[in-house]
Amino acid sequence: MSSSTSLANGRSYLAIPGPSVIPDAVLQAMHRPAPNIYEGGLVAMTETLFPDLKRVARTRHHVAIYVGNGHAAWEAALANTVAPGAKVLALATGRFAYGWANMAEGVGAVPQILDFGRRNAVDLNRFAEALQADTRHGIKAVLVAHVDTSTSVLNDIAALRGVLDDVRHPALLMVDCIASLGCDRFEMDAWGVDVVVTGSQKGLMVPPGISFVFFNDKADMVRQTLPRVSRYWDWAPRIRPEAYYNYFSGTAPTHHLYGLRAALDMIHDEGIEAIWARHDRLARAIWAAVNVWGQDGPLQLNVMNPDIRSRAVTCLRIGAPHGANLRRYTASQLGLTLGLGIGMESGDDPNCDGYFRFGHMGHVSGQMILGLLGGVQAGLIALDIPHGKGAVEAAALVITGG
Ligand SMILES: *Cc1c(COP(=O)(O)O)cnc(C)c1O
After folding, report:
1. Residue 263 dihedral angles phi and psi, to the nearest 5°
2. 230 and 164, same structural domain?
3. Contacts for 226-232 with beta carbons within 8 Å, 24 or more apart?
4. 255 within domain boundaries
5. Best CA proximity match to 113, nearest among 132, 96, 125
6. Residue 62 pLDDT more than 90?
7. Rounded to the nearest whole angstrom, what is the distance from the C-alpha of residue 33 to the centroid of ligand 1?
8. What is the CATH number of the domain that holds 334?
9. Who contacts 63 (Cβ-Cβ below 8 Å, separation ≥6)?
10. Which of 229, 248, 268 is the last residue of a domain?
11. Do 326 and 333 meet the contact criterion of CB atoms below 8 Å apart?
């Protein structure tokens, strides 16, 4: 096949697991002159964001907004809940729990990591054993990613709460929903989650730059017992500000807030249940296609068990150097940018060239997912990578409800 004629012009699809596709309505809402930050429309509009964010996380508790990315929300959650020297237990189903545990170390906590590998969810028995071994309740918080974006493993958060309750361990349950919020079903209050962190640039469809910490009264009580909380990360003034300026500990992220307003309008117009159903259908279409490709070739889903697969991101295994080659092909020839493999390093694949990922979070439709799968189909043909036939058709059957 000739690669001299690139077909990459025209509208592209950045199909990486964040930043995600930004809706035109969000872009247009941000395209405006600098607003007055003392009074008027911006101040009134900001007040509307808090209840609408809480509806997305399914909580009636609190949410603080930070100027920063997901890492900022990680640090903010820890700064309000963990005193120097306290133990935290990180449950790793990919590399993101290591990232959060590393932040915990940075604020003076002592992380203990339980690693469940790269293709499995948290094992509840091992989790229970670790809690039971902590007879003096030195562990103050459990850190877990709802969806680990490197592996695309989805964890059963309600089950983790069940384990904490069964063994009567008082640690806070703190969940990273940066990849999953607004994509995979998540119920903060019903599932007994104490603290949730998320960012703007994935399911919430806003450019990177603001992030969110949701917390309940139990977590807020813990905050009140800490000897000190760094002023910038302190969530208390951010939920009960004396002045508008306190919401953000400084200048408001003005344009991001307008973008967020537009995104929340889209989310609540569609309805969160409908959004979960859309992500579920699109994810199933992807799985169906990959299963067919894998019937006669090296491509497979990283997560074998469908019960623990994310609906927001999919990690694929194809063997080095096919993963890197496929990404290069779809980006340069088709205008389709696939996600890098991360956190899957091994001796024979130090750069994760045998992996790639699909981001299918937020503003994604049936035609985009069929285009994504058609693009991979073209790449497999162009690069002569063996694969089963009929994958896009299998996806179309799922899309049409078959
Ligand atoms: C994207 C992501 C992060 C990191 O967010 P940044 O904005 O890059 O700091 C953390 N955890 C998960 C699960 C993510 O998907």
Report:
1. -65, -40
2. yes
3. 226/80, 226/81, 226/83, 227/83, 229/79, 229/80, 230/79
4. yes
5. 96
6. yes
7. 30
8. 3.90.1150.10
9. 50, 53, 54, 57, 212, 213, 214, 215, 239
10. 268
11. no
Q: Which residue, judged by its Cα, is nearest atom 2 of ligand 1? A: 178
Mean pLDDT to the nearest integer, 301-329: 98
Same-domain check for residues 188 and 49? yes
The last residue of one of the domains, among 216, 241, 268, is: 268
Residues having CB closer than 6 A to ligand 1 are: 18, 69-71, 96, 145, 149, 176, 178-179, 199, 208
**Among the listed residues 250, 155, 248, the one whose alpha carbon sits nearest the alpha carbon of residue 193:** 155
Quote the DSSP letter at residue 92: E
Ligand 1 pocket test, candidate residues 67, 102, 149, most atoms within 8 A of CB: 149
pLDDT single digits (tens) 92-102: 999 999 999 99
* Three-state secondary structure of 132-197: HHCCCCCEEEEEEECEECCCCEECCHHHHHHHHHHCCCCCEEEEECCCCCCCCCCCCCCCCCCEEE
Q: What is the pLDDT of residues 148-192, one digit of tens each?
A: 999 999 999 999 999 999 999 999 999 999 999 999 999 999 999
Distance 74 CA to ligand 1 centre (A): 9
Is residue 6 in some structural domain? Answer: no
Per residue in 106-123, pLDDT tens? 999 999 999 999 999 999
Q: Are residues 204 and 299 in the same domain?
A: no
Domain span at residue 177?
25-268
394 and 310 together in one domain: yes
- Residue 214, strand partner residues: 63, 196
